[in-house]
Amino acid sequence: MTLANAQQAQLQELYEAMAPSHLTPLWESLADLVRPFPRSAAHVHRWDYDEARAYLMRAGDLISAEKAERRVLILENPGLAGQSAITPSLYAGLQLILPGEIAPCHRHSQCALRFVMEGDGAFTALDGEKAIMRPFDLVLTPGGQWHDHGNTTDQPMIWLDGLDIPTVRLFDAQFAEHYSGKAFPESAPAGDTLARYGHNMRPMQGSVADRRPAHQPLFHYPYAQWRPALDAMAAHATMDPHLGHALEFVNPADGGSVMPTISAHVRLIPAGAQTLPRKSSDGTIFVVVEGRGSAMVGGREVALSPRDIVVVPSWNELVLQASETLVLFAYSDKASQDKLQIYREWKS
Ligand code: GTQ
After folding, report:
1. Which pTM was predicted?
2. Which of 66, 71, 72, 123 to mutate to test the pocket of ligand 1 (most atoms within 8 A of CB)?
3. Where in this chain does the record put each Cupin type-2 domain (predicted)?
4. Fewest C-beta atoms under 10 Å: which of 15, 202, 341, 347?
C-alpha cells in the first residue's frame, strides 16, 4: 500500500467512526457547497395550460373547493420532485373555483399572489374586502392577512397561485389559522383600497381611511391598468435590449417589491423582436398573457403560446423571441435576494 492509499484508508476510517456522531468532513463536499456560480437542481419546464386545465376540471368533478380547502394542482418542478416547489424558493399552483363555490377563510405566514388565467368576476377577499378578479389581474394575499375566495358567477374561475411556501419552509417559521366563521365579515366595499392606494395617492395620514396595514396596503393590480401602461411605454420607448418593455409591480408603501419575498413584473416583446442573452440569479416563473414566440433557455427552445407557464431556473441564459407580440407576466424571489444582498445578473 502506498503512503497516499494508506492515508485515504485512514480518512475513510475516520469518516465512518465519526458518522454516528453526526460529523462529516467539509473537504469532501466543499466544491459542491460553495460553487463559483448557481447550478440549480430545478429544470427548465413548460406547462401547457389546456392540459393542466383538463386535469383541474376533472378534480372539480371529484372534490369541492370547500372540502379541499384550496382546490389546486401544484406545478411541481421535475427537478424538485416531492418538494411542491417550482423553483427552490417558490411555489406555483393552478386553483379552480366553480360557480357557487367558496374557498374558506384562513391566514398564514406565506405570501401569495394570484394571477387570473380564466373567468371573470369571482373574488378574493382580503381582511374582508373583495377584489373582483378579471382576466390577467394580479391580486395579492400577503402573509398574515385573512383571505377567502368565492365565485358567484356562472363560469369556472382559474388562477395561478404564486407563493413563497419553500422560502418560509426553509426558515421553519410558518404559522397558519382557520377563520372560525365561513367568510370574514365585509370590512369595505370592493375596490375601496384600489381607489385609495392604486393611483399614486394615499389616504391623508391619520385619516380613518387608514384601515389597511401600513406596510402592505394595495392588493389589486388590474389588467385594465397594467396592460395599457405597457402599450403606452412600447409605443414610444426603445425596448430594453435584455428585458423588452418591462414594468415591475410595486408596493406603494415603500416603492419596493409587491411582497417581502416575491417580485412581479410584466413585459412586452414586440413582434419580430428578440432579446439579448441574460442570466439572473432569481429563478423566474413566466405566464404567457398574449402572443407567440419562444424562450431560448441555455440554447434549448421552449415554444410559448397563450396561458403557457414556463419556469426558468436561476442562472440559465434566457433569450426571448416574439413571432407575435409577446406579453408576459413573471414572478420570482428577487425581492428576497435583494434583501439578502445576493442577487446578481449577467448581460451579454
Ligand atoms: O389560496 O391560500 O395554492 O394557502 C396553496 C396554499 C393556495 C391559498 C395555494 C394556499 C393557498
Report:
1. 0.96
2. 72
3. 94-161
4. 341
Kindly tell me the sign of the dihedral angle through the C-alpha atoms of 79, 84, 88, 93: positive
209, pLDDT greater than 80: no
Amino acid at 197: Y
Q: What would the pLDDT profile of 87-131 be if each residue is shown by its tens digit?
A: 999 999 999 999 999 999 999 999 999 999 999 999 999 999 999
**For position 208, what pLDDT does the model report?**
64
CA separation for the pair 76, 85 (Å, rounded): 5
End-to-end, the C-alpha distance of the chain in Å comes to 52
Quick check: 1 pLDDT over 80?
Answer: no
What domains sit in the chain, N to C, each tagged with a CATH number? 45-347 (2.60.120.10)
Backbone angles phi, psi at 225, to 5 degrees: -95, -45
Decide if 148 contacts 102 (C-beta within 8 A). Answer: yes
Considering only CA atoms, which of 292, 286, 293 is closest in space to residue 267? 286
Average pLDDT, the chain: 96
User: Measured from the CA of 93, which atom of ligand 1 is nearest?
Assistant: 3
- Please tell me the distance between residue 173's alpha carbon and the centre of ligand 1 in angstroms: 17
Q: Residue 136, by phi and psi: left (phi above 0), alpha (psi -120 to 50) or beta?
A: left
Q: Which residues contact 71 (CB under 8 A, 6 or more apart)?
A: 56, 59, 60, 63, 64, 65, 95, 96, 97, 103
For a ligand 1 pocket test, name from 70, 114, 141 the mutation site with the most ligand atoms within 8 angstroms of its C-beta: 70
DSSP string, 280-323: ESS-EEEEEEEEEEEEEETTEEEEE-TT-EEEE-TT--EEEEEE
